[in-house]
Amino acid sequence: MFATSPSELWSVERMLSVSGLEFMRAILDGSGPHPPIARTLNYRLDMVEEGRVVFRGTPLFEHTNPLGTVHGGWYGTLLDSAMACAVMTRVPEGSYYTTLEYKVNVTRNLPVGTEILCEGKVSHAGRSTGVATGELRGAADGKLYATGSTTCLIMTG
């Protein structure tokens, strides 16, 4: 279920009452709301485990730039989501995170309509920072379309 209004998102209190891994699993199993941006950009959470998440998505014509190629923001948003949500799986109950910075390297043009898997993996999760990397690959052939890295700030509620 995609949230369609702010009232459908979890309250801060409810989000802080579970670990980040529990929060991410709730989104995956449908007991928590899927982020509204995922509907807009045509992607969804596909897999969650501690330190790793995978999103599945397909760019549409609506995600192209004036040249007709998939906009770099589509790559960036999926990588930011996967990498930061991977960090979230390592955030303890009573804490939350925010992205401090992320970097994206596009390795090749992603044709419109190509289904992808976007994986985020944690390399470090401490008390105050989390670091993760990501890869955006073709679901059918495993071709690498983009990579990324991120640093997230972990804060107590």
From TrEMBL:
Question: What CDD domains does its record include?
Answer: PaaI_thioesterase (cd03443)
| Key word Hydrolase present | yes
Domain Thioesterase, residue spans = 68-138
GO MF, one term, reads: fatty acyl-CoA hydrolase activity
Pfam families reported in the protein's UniProt record? 4HBT
List the PANTHER family hit by this protein, alphabetically. Answer: ACYL-COENZYME A THIOESTERASE 13, THIOESTERASE SUPERFAMILY MEMBER-RELATED
The Swiss-Prot or TrEMBL record describes its family as follows: Belongs to the thioesterase PaaI family.
The molecule here is called Thioesterase superfamily protein
